[in-house]
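A reminder before we start the practical. When you read a complex entry, don't treat the lines as separate problems. The point of joint prediction is that each chain is placed relative to the others, so the output describes one connected object in space. Small molecules and nucleic acid strands, if listed, are placed in the same frame. In the example below there are two entries. Take a minute to note the order of the lines before looking further.
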Amino acid sequence: MQFESSDIKAMDARRRAGMINSVSGFKSANLIGTSNAKGQTNLAIMSSAVHLGSSPPLLALVIRPSNDQHHTLANILDSGCYSINHVTSTIVEQAHQTAARYPAGISEFDATGLTPLWHEGFGAPMVAEAGVKLGLSLREHHELAINGTNMVIGEVVFVEVPAGCIAEDGCIDLAGAGTVALSGLDTYYQAVAPKRMAYAKTHLPPRVLSDASGQ
Amino acid sequence: MQFESSDIKAMDARRRAGMINSVSGFKSANLIGTSNAKGQTNLAIMSSAVHLGSSPPLLALVIRPSNDQHHTLANILDSGCYSINHVTSTIVEQAHQTAARYPAGISEFDATGLTPLWHEGFGAPMVAEAGVKLGLSLREHHELAINGTNMVIGEVVFVEVPAGCIAEDGCIDLAGAGTVALSGLDTYYQAVAPKRMAYAKTHLPPRVLSDASGQ
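Here is the predicted structure of the whole assembly.
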């Protein structure tokens, strides 16, 4: 099926949001943990983490100006730090529930039953039940004039990986760590049958290092 | 396992890149199709597409200043348009091979055997063999001072979805369309067993709309 610009503009807003949220392909599903100056915690699911570079280790996060992500942004700008926690298949339901518009006085940790976990000397809570967990220190904040979204750039200051899920070469076994992939706004997938490729060279054909897909 | 900032800094560069490229979770795997003013085509695999908003429909793409993505950026800035094409499990090998550093005179289409497909009136080639295919019109370009990466913001001007892979509510069935998820730099996964959640409300518990995971 084909949709031109005029078709996209003419769509019902919810249908357009459904389509445009899925056109980029699979997304990460992360819980962003923050705290305000009073120690009030907040937890929000986001799918917009993107790698900027590994030296220094930087990730960007696109935060939408809607109500439910407003507290997260305010806490990040206030405290200068936040955690990124991988949603695993065992906590999909609680993780998704953090998207509900709880008022500022209610922590999504309490509302969903997920457990805050603190890292020595770091001012934002992680999620105990999550898989891979990261601490980030705010480095830059940009408001994107084009549509009022916010881009937050953070440096990774610590990484916690479940036992046995990191290889000698540094690569994390996301499937082994239980991490799920997100499609659109609400559909969570498990990942299977990895095919690992060798570093691409112009003078060599593609070389498969390992293939569990059976293809 | 736990890695502090000092551990991350002390890592061998390749190992650090492996880890930091996988800490954000699963990523999209897209082929970016472009053309220069002479009609010379270019194709590059990227994992950094991120949703900015659906009205207008905007996606951002982070492009690294390394050699192999330099031609793509130059073509986008020159022509003002580019295509985003989902890597499917059937073209993982060719798609990964586009990351090799071919010289400017060689099109990755020719080098990998993937087929350029043109959309009426649009100046960048799509990939015939890909799943979901998008055309984007350049809206903004930012160089991120923090590490010299480039962020390109584009408006989606057309969307092509394989038959039967889009629901009434606009959501695309990525698994049905064959789209794969990427982990790190080189590991491609199929996605299975989706669990779809209802819109989260504060006064209702999490509600599973459908669950193929058997959990």
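Discuss with your neighbour: Chain A touches chain B through 114 residues (CB under 8 Å). What might explain this?
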